[in-house]
Amino acid sequence: MKKTIVAILIVLLAMTAVFANGAEEKQAENKATKIGFVVINDESDQGYTWNFMNGMEKALEQLKAEGYNIELLVKRNTTESAIARDNNEELAAEGCEIIFNNSYGFEPYMLEAAKDYPDVKFVGMTNCASQVDGKDNTYNAFAAIYEGRYLAGIAAGMKLQQMIDEGQIKAEEAVIGYVGAFSFAEVISGMSGYYLGVKSVCPSATMKVYFVGTWGDATLEEAAANALIDADCVMISQHSDTTSPALAAQKAGVFHTGYNTDMTHVAPNASLLSCRIDWSRYFYTFIKNHIDGVENASDWTGTVADGDVVITELNTAIAAPGTQEAIDAAKAAFKAGTLHVFDLSKFTVDGGKTGTNELLYDGFASVQGNATYDGYFHESELQSAPYFVGKIDGIVWLNANYGN
């Protein structure tokens, strides 16, 4: 009997050990993958960083539903300085396997951290060095936001043309004010795409640009918007990170189109819509590929056709009749490959010159090449980060060239 009991105990102990090992293996298999995120502002900006965080949350929600265990660590309100390097290094030291960075000025500091942590993947959004830095653990991603700005420009142009047709303004008074952060390719490409969208439906429109020299200073953005309104602009748009331009437009009784987030909730009588990048598909795919052992592309570009560049719901209470139909037609043309924002027949530069690669291409771009052929400028095809820097006729720069 004792021998039987002993045998049973041995079997039970063996089974317990098997179950314990199995539990440990299961726990190891379900161990959280740590993801880091270095961001320039925080969600309270209701714009740039909010949009990135919203995309990340959507991606993580989808991954969680599919059984992936992800832990997100965020470094908020990071300045474009050595602090960016420190934050990347801290996240790497905490065990993050991927670290995303959401600001252009973070890249040199991110690359310093990447040298010391070769097993960590570092991703710079809006940046361009991954193709030329000689590192296997760095990546870049951006989207063809100039396509989204073109669509937003259609909404603005339709409103301006309505105001002309109804006698509210004269044709020459269809003047747009644009709050720009810096005068480098990302902003120039976007504001030019926007203007060409406006011109496609309101041929008499012109645009004035005021650069603020920073990404997300609400006070400076408001001051710039007010300066543009004082300069007789009746439509305000922006490549800046806060809702201040929308609020200024609302207060002054002029119209507005935004960026990164729907701004109609803060300016319901002014803001027509916004364009933005939906980062969720990129975050989802990159993280999933990493966990599944699939290599990601070193440089990624999202588009309207792929659903990565979107516009928010049109504010039909103030939009011109036919605006949604015009936007839908342009979207369909983007998807069909028949609409090219920088069609050389639609604009001139530098006082009447036809666009050439020398006049349009950013000489400081990481990847050099010819982007001007087949009748249009091929933006974001050589690299995801924009490189269009042509000074389109009809756009007036009001102040110093920040960022060059």
How would you describe this structure in keywords?
404 residues; alpha/beta; Rossmann fold; 2 domains; six-stranded parallel sheet; 11 helices; 15 strands
Q: What does the model show?
A:
With 404 residues, the protein is α/β, with parallel strands linked by helices. It folds into 2 domains: 137 residues, 3-Layer(aba) Sandwich (Rossmann fold), CATH 3.40.50; 214 residues, Rossmann fold. Helices cover 39% and strands 17% of the residues. The protein is built from 11 helices and 15 strands. The strands form 3 sheets. A 7-stranded mixed beta sheet has the order 12-10-9-8-6-7-15, sandwiched between helices. A 6-stranded parallel beta sheet has the order 2-1-3-4-5-11, with helices on both faces. A two-stranded antiparallel sheet has the order 13-14. Strand 13 and strand 14 form a beta hairpin. Helix 3 packs parallel to helix 4 and helix 5 runs antiparallel to helix 10. The chain is globular, with a radius of gyration of 25 Å. The relative contact order is 0.14. The N terminus is likely disordered.
Topology:
Elements: H1 2-29, E1 33-38, H2 48-65, E2 70-75, H3 82-93, E3 98-101, H4 107-116, E4 121-125, E5 138-143, H5 145-165, E6 175-180, H6 185-199, E7 206-211, H7 218-230, E8 235-239, H8 244-252, E9 255-259, E10 271-277, H9 280-292, E11 299-302, E12 309-311, H10 323-336, H11 357-360, E13 372-373, E14 376-377, E15 395-397
Parallel strand pairs: 1-2, 1-3, 3-4, 4-5, 5-11, 6-7, 6-8, 7-15, 8-9, 9-10
Antiparallel strand pairs: 10-12, 13-14
Helix pairs in contact: 2-9, 3-4, 5-6, 5-10, 7-8
